[in-house]
Amino acid sequence: MPLTLPDRLPAIDLLKQENIFVMGASRATAQDIRPLRIVVLNLMPIKITTETDLIRVLSNTPLQLELFFMKIKSHTSKNTPIEHMRAFYRDFDVLRHEKFDGMIITGAPVEHLDFEQVTYWDEMKDIFSWARTHVTSTLYICWAAQAGLYYHYGVPKHPLAKKMFGIFPQKPLCPSLPIFRGFDDVFQMPHSRHTEIRREDIEAIHDAQTSPLTIIAESEESGVSIVMAREGREFFITGHAEYSPFTLDTEYRRDLSKELPIEMPRHYYKSDDPKQGPLVSWRAHANLLFTNWLNYYVYQETPYDISTIH
Fold this sequence. Notes:
single chain, 12 strands, 10 helices, alpha/beta, Rossmann fold, twelve-stranded mixed sheet
């Protein structure tokens, strides 16, 4: 089954070139089926790239999805055309009266700030709280994972001595969970961040919460990878499983051109040689991760009458 996307969304043409099945909303209305309603709060600066990355990994499900894009009212994107934002994004204030089967909240380029210093933090807190009663299951990615863990559970973030940058092996700690169905004993995940969350902070609050956090994937190199809460109604992913093959390369060359302190992404280039390009090792598990989330934690759990989500 395809993803149902807003007509004229740039990702449609890009992904059709990759033989990924998507269709516009006008065609989808002719089908008598209730698609899963998935809302994406896209906080990344280059929104069209992030849209395309997420749609690519969501497209492998046999379920039909209807995608919505949310933006925060208190921040104006500087790197995405205003016409694009007006055509495809709606403010949280507009969408807050609706309910959704699933939600994805992306990372944001504000890691260097304390959460309370982020100009749109108050609106983010409203969205985090709203998601608990208006969404069946929510994926928090990278900065959003750190922010969600901090807001909901008081887990702090810590600065790293140097950027966690590259592709790192992850180990499923609860391999019998449906989110890991079909996974190998080790899977790869891209990371690109200057801060981290720590196991000891999560373990310190474990017994104090009625719905404790469970670390379900971890890496010896990159640390805590995936945290689950509320029996899968919340997943906090510290990396970027959705990244396309050249995303880290683009970030690396961007920082080099700005003469910023940046090391070559680890375990990424063939023979550790940027001229040879990336060795793609994470996409199969990325597709499986999102497919399992949609099937077992959204489709299998969400009510047919979406208004009864609570």
